[in-house]
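We modelled the chain as a single entity of 304 amino acids. Its sequence is:
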Amino acid sequence: MQQPTDINRIKSISQLLRMLELPSPLHPLIALVDYDRVPIETFPQGQKISLDFYKISFKTSFRGHIKYGQDYYDFEEGGLAFLKPKQIVFSPEDAGSYEGIALYFHPDLIRNYPLGKTINQYGFFSYDVSEALFLSAKEKEIIASLLAAIAVELSNNTDSFSQDVMVSQIELLLNYSNRFYNRQFMTRKAVNHDIITALDTFLNRYFEEESSLKNGLPSVKYISTELKLSQRYLSDMLSSLTGLNTQQYIQNTIIEKAKEKLSTTHLSVSEIAYELGFEHSQSFSKLFKNKTHVSPLEFRKSFG
């Protein structure tokens, strides 16, 4: 019997389809799985799973919460989720959570195409499972039509253009997903502004309580963990709403704190750098000049 700590590693799409008791894939590097056609007893439940290929899940009508390990995947009448190769997730404990369509494709399918180099630019493959893409009715129609086009291409006789067409279709699906995620960031402004408020509160407390003296500069990883968000989701959300990624947002906060200390205290530049968490004052001065176009001492003199 498999122990909960074991990881069920699935190395090929053929292996996955055998596990689900489905026919062999029409193409060894890509497959579409309609969960309505999968025997319910074959679904892995409560397992740690790692795929050696990409997965895009499209849930068309499921409404509710799906638990993956300690996290919940929140669906509002359907949505999209993305997994990259070797990302470890917990399969749902409830087999009824399996619904909709999943697109699986191996990195080898896109390796010799521009998409093989640019796919890492699609940040949503690095989001947590709880950071799903919610879709409007119109958006669901678009995604469904794109997946249907891939299904048609898979069912055609393979020729010298088949792989080119399928890779183009995947890239189009990813570009639409990028557009829809940006729309989600904008339409969920209330939720996202709460996140920004929580980020501001955290950073203010971090410097006011002098955590920087003990722990140094706050890292993107540390802050993301504190806010219970993936690093990439937080950075993409901030970029959409503020034009700054997380690292830039942190740096701007540091500069504002530095300006406050330079204009209201007699601390030396080295002392300010140390209080803010810099190991070397030169690093602080370089960042300050890069952001303000003046040195810390020049900034202080402007208040003299």
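As a brief sanity check on the tokenised model: Residues 165 and 201 are 48 Å apart (CA to CA). The first helix runs from residue 13 to 19.
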